[in-house]
Amino acid sequence: MSAESSTTVLSGLAAAPGCASGKAYVIRNAEDIMAVPAGAILVIRILHPHLAPLLPRVAGLVVEEGAILQHATTLARECSIPAVVGIRDARTLLHDGDFLKVDGYTGKVVAKHVA
Amino acid sequence: MSSPVSKFTQAEVTSAQPYRRQIVGLPLQRSLFAQTARAATTIGLPGLTSELDFPARLDENGDLFLDRSQVGALTEALLSWFTPETLELMHTKHATACAALVDASENGARSAASLDDAAARELSEDLADRTALVMVYGILSKFVPDVLLRALADARDVEPPPFPEKSAGSELTRDMLTLYQACCALDYEPQRLQHEWPHVSPEAFRLVSEFCNRQRGFGPLAWDSPGYEDPNYVVRLLHSAFHEVDAEEVRQRLSFARGPAVARSAEAPKRVAALRRVLALWLDFLERETWYVRRAFYVGMVPLLQQLAAGYRQEIPSFRISDLLFLDIGELAGGIADPVAIHARRHRYMENTEYLSLHGIDAHRLATMLESR
Prior knowledge:
- The complex is a heterodimer.
- In chain A, strands 1-8-7-3-4-5-6-2 form an 8-stranded mixed beta sheet, with helices on one face.
- Chain A is globular, with a radius of gyration of 13 Å.
- By secondary structure, chain A is mainly β.
- Chain A has helices spanning 71-78, 90-93, and strands at residues 5-11, 13-16, 19-26, 41-44, 60-63, 83-85, 99-103, 108-114.
- The relative contact order of chain A is 0.33.
- Chain B is mainly alpha-helical.
- Chain B has 17 helices and 2 strands.
- A two-stranded antiparallel ribbon of chain B has the order 1-2.
- In chain B, a hairpin with a 5-residue loop joins β1 (56-58) and β2.
- In chain B, α7 (144-154) packs antiparallel against α13 (270-315).
- The chains are: A mainly beta, B mainly alpha.
- The A-B interface holds A 29-31, 33-36, 38, 48-57, 67-71, 73-75, 77-80 and B 142-143, 145-146, 149, 161, 163-164, 166-170, 172-173, 176-177, 218-220, 225-228, 236-237, 239-245, 249-250, 253-254, 256-258, 260, 282-283, 286-288, 290-291, 357-360.
């Protein structure tokens, strides 16, 4: 039996260059940071500096907060992790396990949702 | 508690969407937000001459509201105000506020144990004032860096923004990686460390404790949410960050991080150079704004609260040190503690399961966050 799937394209601001793909891992509360899968695309409201040690294990970043000049931009550039910021409601639109392609040059995020 | 921006009408408050929800829950920390509007009038920026000009307020639920029209007015005021001289003033006041808070935090830690109640209250109030001042810059950081970038664009500056060369976050990551490798060398892989903590070897215990002391201040904005001051938090995060990760690859990734474009100086027009210098400070501040506020509490305020708690216990035998977190700063400074009010506030706080879950606060957190380490 094949799972139903749909594809969504979201547009934000290109914050850190590069392209990455992987499964979404959505941070909704403080406890979620304690179980970030290696190679995941982190979906988060805002990336504070205290979460920086988690960055080397993730493949890409999708951030809800809109400004290009923010923590996530600085940290993602330093770790060479593709990042798109300013996708409002990303944590509502995306779900754990969705397959994401993050384009840190164009600000596009392609999400393949698996039902 | 009165609203720091009283020109908001009730209708505006209730109909507006919060900029951020439930960011701060403890009355003591919330009361510092109430001081920001007054503090903002002292930083010398155009369009911030009255408390009514400040665009942010925090409500009783800990929701942060930002008045977009006031942000727009401040943006326009700033854009027509920037000169090399005013930018230098802006830079100096900002850097001085941050340095003064660090000094006040250290002073609280150094002197708390030797102070009588009156002096401890005075120092607490001073620390709160300095924290509120840095919080003003924290609010302004939501839009001032973009205003500076716009001013640079208007001046036809095409260089990339002057991001920090080694950000606070990457320095923290390097230090945590070093801790991870040192613990592994002692045969404490993160999983074992987490499983056995705090019953680990004295050397492993020392390494983690020293890391916590060094990095105290990193963590969420809400004081009550666990952060790097807490060894339990650190050993769990150590596992989350480095489990199934090649440590050497991480180190190389951090080492090869590309540096930012540095501020041009000699050949750039004076105003552009000044704009870039100030923007560089703001971008660095973005990485440290929460650290300043959290460190002020854990380094400076906690020892003062410990000192003050003894006096309260003499008057109210059932008094717990965590009761102080349910006072506002005015009550703390004035020596006022109404057990009934404290109980009601604590009850309301503990009933807010959404807030507690969002911030990872368990039943013991209020007691453990005030322990001496």
